[in-house]
Design brief:
This protein is an alpha/beta fold. It has two domains: 184 residues, Alpha/Beta hydrolase fold, catalytic domain (Rossmann fold); 86 residues, no CATH class. The chain contains nine helices and eleven strands. The strands form two sheets. Strands 1, 2, 3, 4, 7, 8, 9, 10 and 11 form a nine-stranded mixed sheet that branches. Strand 5 and strand 6 form a beta hairpin. Helix 3 crosses helix 4. It starts with 11 loop residues before the first helix and ends with a strand. The relative contact order is 0.15. Belongs to the peptidase S10 family.
């Protein structure tokens, strides 16, 4: 079984968090529709004053809404934007993309990982994230491609065209039109970042921006660099690297690693039974260790026996599933610490 099809089951508490995020997204949609109904225009029409369950302090300057990327087909992408906590007029702009493909940058990146407002345990409300990345940058989360989150198209055939080139073009058009709505950020130092399948999205969008900047007739975007964490890039290197990392960090023994080298040819997309068995040994270690932050203590939330039984049943069902959620190799770590420790791959232009 190839690496991209592996699953790390989510607990029922995580599912409750996802439900809360869905409710928040519905609230966003209501805000956007109301803004249009009363004739608001520009960025102030997208301002979000306060979310249900949001702490009264510290204040959070945030915006959410749709940006049209293709008028003819009725295609629009949904965003959630947080100004920097201090001196937003001086801080760079950073775009965040979750991967999957199909994972929500709002539900995961913003509400679970690096945004200033995170869903609390068991989905009870929101809490301020003191490690939020908008401490150092203006933070823009984008639901991409169409069909993810609240991003939509009115042309059904668009959904059959979602290759990487299509996605990069839509994301670029989003940026051009977003800067028209937020002109104060045009010319600001700009970075693109993401995780998982954004190992494709991020560099391809960066390349497109770089190429379009050569055309003086195009909108100039002051791209300074990009970074990817836990990126899906190439099955061979991803799988080989996972085995090497587990061995070099004592997650598995020398014997297991030697067995993997002997029976696994990661250039083949369908692993042999022997390889699958050997790699299962690696994945089984991460039932007790956080695969994205191996030195962190395991987080155990109190659960009833019924909840535990339910989680076990869900895990079995999830392992058999081939749904899009299988491909969401998302972080459950403090990504700000990862960034500070230099664990991201960074490319500067």
């Amino acid at each position: 079984m190839p690496l991209s099809r592996r699953l790390h089951p989510r607990s029922s508490s995580s599912k409750r968090q996802q439900l809360t995020v869905a409710i928040l997204l519905l609230f966003f949609q209501t805000l956007c529709c109301n803004a249009e109904a009363v004739g608001y225009s520009g960025q102030e029409g997208d301002r979000v004053r306060l979310l249900p369950g949001q702490p009264a302090s510290p204040p959070v300057s945030q915006f959410a809404g749709y940006v049209t990327v293709n008028e003819r087909n009725g295609r629009a992408l949904f965003y959630w934007f947080f100004e920097a906590q201090t001196s937003p007029e001086k801080k760079p702009l950073l775009l965040w993309l979750n991967g999957g493909p199909g994972c929500s940058s709002v539900g995961y990146g913003a509400a679970s990982e690096l945004g200033p407002l995170r869903v609390t345990s068991h989905g009870a409300g929101l809490e301020f994230n003191k490690f939020a990345w908008n401490r150092e940058a203006n933070l823009l989360f984008l639901e991409s491609p169409v069909g993810v989150g609240f991003s939509y198209t009115n042309t059904f055939s668009d959904l059959a065209k979602l290759d990487d080139t299509f996605v990069a073009e839509d994301a670029y058009n989003f940026l051009v039109n977003w800067f028209k709505r937020f002109p104060q950020f045009k010319g600001r130092e700009f970075y693109i970042s993401g995780e998982s399948y954004a190992g494709h999205y991020v560099p391809q969008l960066a390349e497109l921006v770089y190429d379009r900047n050569k055309d003086k007739a195009s909108t100039y975007i002051n791209l300074k660099g990009f970074m990817v964490g836990n990126p899906l890039t190439d099955d061979y290197y991803d799988s080989k690297g996972l085995a090497e990392y587990a061995w070099s960090h004592s997650v598995v023994s020398d014997e297991v690693y030697e067995r993997i080298k002997k029976v696994c040819d990661f250039r083949i997309s369908n692993w042999t039974d022997d390889c699958d068995k050997a790699m299962t040994t690696v994945f089984s270690q991460y039932h007790e260790i956080d695969i994205y932050n191996i030195y962190a203590p395991r987080c155990n939330l109190p659960q009833s026996s019924a909840a535990v039984a339910g989680d076990q049943e869900l895990a079995v069902n999830d392992q058999r599933s081939t749904s899009i959620r299988q491909m969401c190799r998302e972080h459950s770590m403090q990504m700000s610490v990862e960034l500070e420790n230099g664990k991201f791959a960074v490319t500067q232009f």
